[in-house]
Design goal:
The structure is a homodimer of 210-residue chains.
Chain A (H helix, E strand, L loop, with lengths): L6 H17 L5 E2 L1 H8 L3 H10 L10 E2 H12 L5 E6 L3 H8 L1 H4 L3 E8 L8 E2 L2 E5 L3 H7 L2 E6 L3 H13 L4 E4 L12 E4 L2 H13 L6
Helix pairs in contact in A: 1-2, 1-3, 1-4, 2-3
The structure holds a DNA duplex (24 and 24 nucleotides).
DNA sequence: TAGATTGTTAATCGATTAACAATC
DNA sequence: TAGATTGTTAATCGATTAACAATC
């Protein structure tokens, strides 16, 4: 699977987008140096990343903020609204449903599902929890593009399998498992205990040198 | 800042640890091939990663699971219990406090702080929410090693600055901001809207080739 | 023009991987 | 011994970065 943009670049474009939101309050154009500072990277990196999106900066001036924003949005495919289904209505699933970043900027949580009958029918932030059995029709009817897995680890693989079978090609996995899936299915893993363990390493890394 | 292990390796060790937990139910030794399969990487990668930790596999046999577990735990600094303070007692902060991965495996949430007086005094999963003003004494007294920032974006930098000043060197940041900090402070960023935007890219990446 | 900043090159760096000798 | 699997090398791949000509 080769993509039109380097994966690392794709991961930084959202940072630039956020930086543009900040500078747009006071400026019309922005330099790669400013963006680099706000995104925590080098300016050469910014220029290279932006060149992939076909951006057009002006030498001696910088990038037009409005133009760049829409160019990045197009590159990331953010024009179309994207429907999200969250599986798992526990603490995390509920928090995610409430997360402002999910609602804003083209993403919309259209369904929350859980296997626990006690949770089915509950209202979370205006969305009624549905039975997990409804996953396939929900994906189909509501044209779900991204499934967020917020279940315990042992349920994650089965949910992923079903989602993939139903046509989903993008999964955001919060369960602490590495999901098996076909090559054309993209999975982003957000693993809190892994993050902690990585920080733990640095906390104790006595061999580190400045 | 140069570390004793490649950063990419550090990020994979937790996966191997989890895989070891799975295979330990049925086996005493494990091959790099098995670990690779469970972690979703190549076996050569596993062997290389493990070689950094000073592991000792046996040719023709594999790795002793118990030995490997403790070797990885040592490499990640997981022997000592690590105290965590969560800043922000909103939906996300509360969910994090309840997250099983935080409690288990050597990490312990010792404090939750919030600037909102209405939340101070509330009980979250057995921990009383404290006033954010208490951050410094809490870090000091409870020997907090990791601060988790679960505040809105506009509060994150200030919280980080104060935590760093109080001696914290590891931050897990859930706020959608790139934090400025000294070189010796490690920040892991978990950004849900960035994850979604990355998935959005792949969803629309028509130039992708198999 | 003088100053600023882009776009791109080429060098560098680091990480991945296939392959295989070593050896249990 | 024969089979399995490690540890490590060397090749490859991809990503970062300094540097600077181009040019607004």
């Amino acid at each position: 699977m080769k993509s039109s943009l380097p994966e690392a670049t794709v991961g930084r474009l959202p940072l630039y987008l956020r930086a543009l939101g900040i500078v747009s309050a006071t400026q019309v154009t922005v330099s790669s140096d400013q963006l680099a500072d706000l995104a925590g990277v080098k300016s050469a990196q910014v220029r290279k990343d932006l060149s992939y999106t076909g951006s057009h900066g002006v030498r001696g001036v910088g990038y037009d903020i409005a133009e760049l924003r829409s160019q990045i949005a197009v590159a990331l495919g953010l024009q179309a609204e994207c429907a999200i289904a969250i599986v798992g209505a526990g603490n995390l699933g509920s928090a995610l449903a409430n997360y402002p970043g999910f609602g804003g900027s083209g993403f919309k949580v259209v369904a929350i599902l859980d296997i626990d009958r006690a949770k089915v029918g509950q209202d979370i932030h205006g969305i009624t929890v549905q039975d997990l059995a409804e996953l396939e029709p929900v994906v189909d009817t509501l044209e779900v593009g991204i499934v967020v897995i917020a279940t315990p680890a042992d349920a994650a693989q089965e949910v992923a399998d079903r989602a993939v079978k139903a046509g989903v090609r993008s999964i955001l996995n919060f369960a602490p498992t590495v999901l098996k899936r076909p090559d054309d299915v993209h999975v982003r893993r957000v693993d809190l205990s892994t993050e902690l363990q990585i920080l733990s390493f640095h906390l104790h890394d006595l061999h580190a040198t400045a």
